[in-house]
Amino acid sequence: MKKITTENYYKPDDIIKNFGAVNFETGEQWAVTEDDILNFVDKITIDELVPDDIKELIEVSKALYAYGYLYWTFFTLSQEQSYKAFEAAISGVHKRVYGSNFSTRGKKRLQLSDMIQKLINSGNIPHEKKARYDAIRELRNMSFHPSMQSQWGLVAYDTVFQVIEEINSLFQTLEKQN
Questions:
Q1: For the segment 124-175, what is each residue's pLDDT rounded down to a tens digit?
Q2: C-alpha of 103 from chain center
Q3: Do residues 88 and 54 lie in contact, with contact meaning Cβ atoms separated by under 8 Å?
Q4: DSSP letters along 95-110, please?
Q5: pTM of the full predicted structure?
Q6: For a surface tag, which of 34, 43, 61, 94 has the fewest beta carbons within 10 Å of its beta carbon?
Q7: At 15, phi and psi to the nearest 5?
Q8: Calpha distance 83→116 (Å, rounded)
């Protein structure tokens, strides 16, 4: 793990030096650079229908991924931040549809799994996406209730990208239904 000093503050984390990139058309290979990481981040798009508070959470996730080049653990934190954005998106849509995120008696906040199921039942989440949403929720649970420290590194990108795509899809579906 990188111990930050004034000498290495702006230098890539040593771990990243072990990874390379390939141009599959030309066969060219090179060490991963900050430009490569920023190109990945630029491919993550946020739909205009996503509310500003959720967009801010997503932008933090993207920034953490970009800074993972300098500090490896930020890749993992980026993934965890995408789970926060996912939960906030589910909560926001649930509240918009049902007026509250609390039980019918109003005393207990609904769990994420309950909100997902209610949104599936109401047609706001397509039933065929249940397994995908449950998988994201399970990854979130593993991340926020760990039995050990995990470092996902560069592969966190796939999860971040897909979680944000699901957030975009959620708000697109909600817009179509209104």
A1: 999 999 999 999 999 999 999 888 788 889 999 999 999 999 999 999 999 9
A2: 27
A3: yes
A4: HHHHS-SB-TTSSSBP
A5: 0.92
A6: 43
A7: -60, -40
A8: 14
